[in-house]
């Protein structure tokens, strides 16, 4: 037979914890910078059909690009993606797509066909002109791997080993 539970002790009956056993306060973690203070555009493959583009721009770089266009030209900050997608063995179909960017620190996932070669630039677009601010490295997406239509034959592993009971 089991013993009945002991009655709970009241708060007044419990002794105070000794000073060496008190929980120390947590030290504040050092703050990591969110930005590096430099212009950059990173292009990272996510699989066979997409890439992540992460950028950081500085005010100086955007000001230099606006000065290049001149004060009379309204401009839009865009992420320009150059895609060279394979259409047949030995041939490719180039395309250019602009994605409007509304912040100087951000990211975007870009879809492209499997096996495509991507390059990207951040810049200002104005009346047919494009002023590059920062360029990303070229990336080639992997080719699509076709699935095997016939499943592999069952593999015979032999008899199952005897199990010992852990009791």
Could you please describe the fold and organization of this structure?
The protein is mostly beta strands. The protein has a domain at 40-140: Immunoglobulin-like, CATH 2.60.40. The protein has 1 helix and 8 strands. Strands 3, 4, 6, 7 and 8 form a 5-stranded antiparallel sheet that branches. A 3-stranded antiparallel sheet has the order 1-2-5, with no helix packed on it.
CATH topology (fold) name of the domain at 40-140: Immunoglobulin-like
* Computed structural class: mainly beta
Major β-sheet profile:
5 strands, antiparallel
- Strand proportion: 35-45%
So how many helices? 1
CATH class of the domain at 40-140: Mainly Beta
Low-confidence stretches: none
The percent range for helix content is under 10%
Q: Please compute the radius of gyration using only Cα atoms.
A: 31 Å
Residue-averaged pLDDT: 82
Q: What pattern of helices and strands is seen along the backbone?
A: EEHEEEEEE
Distance between the termini: 24 Å
CATH superfamily of the domain at 40-140, by name, is: Immunoglobulins
Shape: flat
Architecture (CATH level 2) name of the domain at 40-140: Sandwich
How many strand units?
Answer: 8
């Amino acid at each position: 037979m089991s013993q009945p539970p002991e009655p709970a002790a009241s708060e007044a009956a419990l002794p105070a914890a000794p000073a060496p056993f008190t929980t120390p306060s947590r030290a504040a973690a050092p703050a990591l910078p969110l930005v590096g203070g430099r212009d950059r555009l990173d292009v990272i493959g996510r699989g066979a059909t997409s890439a992540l583009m992460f950028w950081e721009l500085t005010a100086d770089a955007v000001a230099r690009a606006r000065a290049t266009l001149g004060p009379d030209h309204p401009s839009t900050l865009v992420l320009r993606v150059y895609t060279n997608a394979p259409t047949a063995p030995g041939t490719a179909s180039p395309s250019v797509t602009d994605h409007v960017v509304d912040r100087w620190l951000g990211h975007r996932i870009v879809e492209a066909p499997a096996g495509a070669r991507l390059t990207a630039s951040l810049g200002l677009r104005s009346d047919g002109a494009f002023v590059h601010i920062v360029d990303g490295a070229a990336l080639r997406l992997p080719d699509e791997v076709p699935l095997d239509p016939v499943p592999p034959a069952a593999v015979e592993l032999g008899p199952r080993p005897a199990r010992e009971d852990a009791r």
